[in-house]
Amino acid sequence: MQVGLAVNPGTRLDEFQNLVESIDMVLFMAVIPGYYGSKFIPSVLDKIKGFRRRNPQKITGIDGGVKLSNLNDVKESGVDMICVGSAIMESPEPAKAFEEFRKITD
User: Fold this and answer.
1) Hey, what domains does the chain have and what are their CATH numbers?
2) What is 4-56 written as a DSSP string?
3) What is the pLDDT of residues 36-65, one digit of tens each?
4) Is the pTM higher than 0.85?
């Protein structure tokens, strides 16, 4: 079992830095949680890059608002995991959308 921490878009890195030694991964929310299909907040990518510079050994992930149109930027942030929901599930062809994500992330 591992321990993770989900971080809201408005949370500053220094607000949870004291917890980093006690956790295995950080999931950065790229939307305001609670509203399925919310708009992606691009500034979260800079936060991820800053976290990775300070904590290169920690697993990082991103969730919320990830679409094919911003997937390359998300990958460039250095995340280890990408969570995708509405971009696949609200697609007219979810299986095809899933395969598109797989092609770009492999």
Assistant:
1) 4-105 (3.20.20.70)
2) EEEE-TT--GGGTGGGGGG-SEEEEESS-TTSTTPPP-THHHHHHHHHHHH-T
3) 768 999 999 999 999 999 999 999 999 999
4) yes
